[in-house]
Each structure stands twice: as C-alpha cells, then as structure tokens.
Amino acid sequence: MKYNDIHKGRFISRPNRFIANVEIEGKVNIVHVKNTGRCKELLTDNACVLLEKSSNPARKTLYDLVSVYKGKRLVNMDSQAPNRVFQEYLENGRMFQNISFIKPECKFNNSRFDFYVETENRKIFMEVKGVTLEKNNIVLFPDAPTERGLKHIYELISAKKQGFEAYVVFVVQMSDVDYFTPNKETHPEFAEALKVAEKSGVNIIALDCIVTENSLDINREVDVIL
Q1: Which tens digits make up the pLDDT trace of 77-112?
Q2: Which of 20, 156, 187, 202 has the CA that lies 20 to 30 A from 163?
Q3: Alpha-carbon span 9 to 21, nearest angstrom
Q4: What is the CATH number for 189?
Q5: Against a cut of 0.70, is the pTM above it?
Q6: Do residue 137 and residue 207 come from a single domain?
Q7: How many domains does the chain have?
Q8: So what's the pLDDT on residue 38?
C-alpha cells in the first residue's frame, strides 16, 4: 500500500488520543493521529514523524500522522494500515492459492472478524492485529488491555469448533524484528487466550513489513513465541 503527499515533521505533544501538535516546515500544526493507542514509546519529544496531507483543503486537520522514526527504525503507526496491507497480501495470493472469495468485516456469532476467505475446499475466518510495540527487537501485543481482542480470540476458537479454519494474524508494522510474543505484563488474559486458541487449532502467525516513508508492504513471517 502507498501513501500520497508525505511530509516530515517534528512531534511536539499529544493533547488527546486523536490529535497531536507537530511542527511542519517551521509552523506548528494540529494533525490527526491515525492510532488511538498509547504509543508513548513512539511519540517522544522531538521525534521525526511522517504525515500524509489530505486532499481536502476544508478539513480541520490537514495532515494524518502515519509513521514515526524510533531511532533509525521507521515504524508505521496507522491503525488502518494492517488490514489494508493484509488484504493486498491475500489478493496477491501470497498466503493461500486459488482464493475464490474474500469478504472483509464478516460477522460470525457475536463478533465481526476482519476477513472471511474461501478457496475451493477451505473456509477461513481471520482476525488481524496491528503491532507497533517493540522492546529489544521483540514485538508485543497489546500495548493496553483489549477486551475486544480477547472476545475475538474465543470467537475464533468457536469458529474452529464449527469446522472453519481460523487465524489470528499479527501484522508487525516495522521490519527486522526477532520474534513476536504476547504482552503478558499488560494483558495476561490475552496471552493465556492465545495459548488456549493454539491448542484448539487456531493458527497464530506474525508478519513483519517493509516500511518506507510512503509505503507499507508485508515482508515475511516471523517467529511467534507464546
């Protein structure tokens, strides 16, 4: 996936989850943050951020904050990007061959999964989680407790029991990481649920990405340690 009209800026502050103050070409702008997570380890004082300028001049926030340099590493922090880039990955046949049907946002029981996929002889529910938290080259999810994420795990277990294939896909929004592991300190119940899911036959995979200043593409599968 590609971005258009990217500008560099200097992060100043984040008054709330949805906006940030960023200096762009010497002027302080209020920009939209495309990730409502905490991201405290990313949005640090004077961090170099990348912003996509809106094509709508009437919009209150003319820029969307989409990525940030964490030292030398560029991290995409657009919460909409994992689903978009993963759909491209599916459509290009990089995960399953002979896909006949892809439906985003598909309802199952009391949940709505990110994707439902069919091939000639397979029916698959898939839930995608974007990962931006990294410590010592290890990536973790979640960065805050996620009751919604927990619900999705148990619904995937139910789907598996009903004869579907089921996947949890962690899209790591950076490259060159060692492995993925659940964030047991932040949400131990989520980490335990992943173990239960794996034992129940749910597939748990992590994919890292090639991140440039104007694009994001899935690169390779990385190890998952539960």
Answers
A1: 999 999 999 999 999 999 999 999 999 999 998 889
A2: 187
A3: 10
A4: 3.40.1350.60
A5: yes
A6: yes
A7: 2
A8: 87
